[in-house]
Amino acid sequence: MNITLNPQVDKYLIDGCMRCKYGATPKCKVNHWREELELLRQIVLETGLTEEIKWGAPVYTHQGKNVILVNALKESANIGFFKGALLRDENQILEQQGNIQAARIIRFKNVDEIEKVKAILTAYIQEAIALEESGQKVELEKNPEPIPGELIEAFQEDKAFESAFNALTPGRQRAYIIHFSQPKQSQTRYSRIEKYKTQILNGVGLHDEYKKRVN
Length: 215
Hints:
Largest sheet: 5 strands, antiparallel
Strand content: 5-15%
Radius of gyration: 18 Å
Low-confidence stretches: none
Number of domains: 2
Mean pLDDT: 87
Number of strands: 5
Structural class: alpha+beta
Helix content: 40-55%
């Protein structure tokens, strides 16, 4: 199989995520997981998916549809399945991020962890491709805590931010949603989201710093 590498993904792996404030610096989280990301990239490409950059991270598509996301968070290198909720997950390795309904991820801390499940990952990716070809969709349930439109817009503009938010515990997500929804003025809601964006990208909850000071 001929594998075509996307130069933008090469740049991502070398320079880091440019959506991160530490992009192109040694502090960028991509630098901590480069070897793991390279291996995940190789496994995905061997299934024949098309490599692209979307929302500042490698995304792998089939017939123009998003199937797989490979990215780095602060504490892990991850492979994400856009319709992971539909996968059989016979090995029980998929993880739901917060309240997100459709997508599922697998987190890795080192290359050995990836090597041990390489065949399983390939099977999961092939199943995800088959699901995409079938046209099957995830039926979403209504979120009990409505997300403000300003936060949805922020997610659309920055998928890395959305991934970081979804990686928070449900309690932390709810605290942020309530805090962002409180102001009556839309501009104030935008300002609150921007104020806490870095904190969310770092996996920190709204009240975590206060709790540290109290304890």
